[in-house]
Amino acid sequence: MLGRSKDRTYREELSKFGKEKESDIKLEYRDSQGRIMTPKEAFRYQCRIFHGINPSKNKQEKEKKRYEASKKILQTAPQDSASMKALSKLQQQNSQAFVILNTKNQPK
Fold it and tell me: Residues 50-78: pLDDT tens digits?
């Protein structure tokens, strides 16, 4: 029950909007470029607004580099990565469809 005893319950308020469960409500925080922020990033952003403190130049550059690196990873196809090329080369050499990664526990 919210507030006083004569007030409506939380479920009654949800049913007013056609929502039956609490899980139907979803909060999304987006940054200035429109990307969805993680809860940690959203909390930091709100704290900075509340206290009026902006991140330092180094922190801004670090965040920009992190974003560009993740963007670059998403743009490259999985077949083009160096590890996939090495695995496919190994498969062709051994003419097997699988690659053994750990030889420690292999029976001899």
Answer: 999 998 999 999 989 988 998 888 887 77
* CA–CA dist 105, 67 (Å, integer): 40
Residue by residue, DSSP assigns the chain as --SSTTSPPHHHHHHHTT--SGGG-----B-TTSPBPPHHHHHHHHHHHHHT-PPPHHHHHHHHHHHHHHHHHHHS-GGGSHHHHHHHHHHHHHT-S------TT---
Residue 45 CB neighbours (<10 A): 16
Could you tell me which of 99, 75, 102 has the C-alpha nearest to residue 88?
99
Q: What is the pTM of this model?
A: 0.47
Alpha-carbon span 6 to 1, nearest angstrom: 9
Of 10, 7, 34, 33, residue with least CA distance to 22: 10
pLDDT reported for residue 4? 66
Residue 23 pLDDT: 65
